Amino acid sequence: MAESRVAYRYAKALIELAQEKNVLEQVHTDMQFFVQTIDNNRPLYLMLQSPIVPHAKKYNVMRDLFQSRLHPITFSIFEIITRKNREEVLYGVAKAFHELYNKHKNIHVAHVTTTFPLDDSLRAQFRQMAGETLGKKIELEEKIDPSLIGGFVLRVGDKQIDQSIKSKLQKLEQEFKS
């Protein structure tokens, strides 16, 4: 819990600085790139979390990987956090930054669960369906769950549309038991 509060504070400071310097979109892109890099590279994540790896080594790795690819303001938060020996919160900062960015841009997250990866056409249909539900911009988070058997589950805020075969079979089972 304390780590998430620390990450949120760093993210809030970064978003305010990015807005002040008119580089919010660039910093957001950088933070998304960082999250994607960490998500696709478990050893990098583990290295940042490790209390055994010296902080100087962590900084050198971060500098070599990201300094030339990121806006100076984005990289400066990495430097500050590393200098304070808090590398374990970097990933949380990037995630919190994205949440604050969405809040600032009035973008809501819709979660869709299907049994297969979505193509662009289906993605657009789910965004439209979720957008009509809320009347706002939507960012779609996708999850694959083979246990649904077929269909989908769309969750937007506190509303859920469950059109999965699994839930229909469960309802049918309950009807037969009654």
From TrEMBL:
It comes from the Bacteria. The keyword Membrane applies. It is a peripheral membrane protein. Pfam families: OSCP. Its main location: membrane. It is found in: Cell membrane; Membrane. Belongs to the ATPase delta chain family. F(1)F(0) ATP synthase produces ATP from ADP in the presence of a proton or sodium gradient. F-type ATPases consist of two structural domains, F(1) containing the extramembraneous catalytic core and F(0) containing the membrane proton channel, linked together by a central stalk and a peripheral stalk. During catalysis, ATP synthesis in the catalytic domain of F(1) is coupled via a rotary mechanism of the central stalk subunits to proton translocation. This protein is part of the stalk that links CF(0) to CF(1). It either transmits conformational changes from CF(0) to CF(1) or is implicated in proton conduction. This is ATP synthase subunit delta. It comes from Rhodocytophaga aerolata.
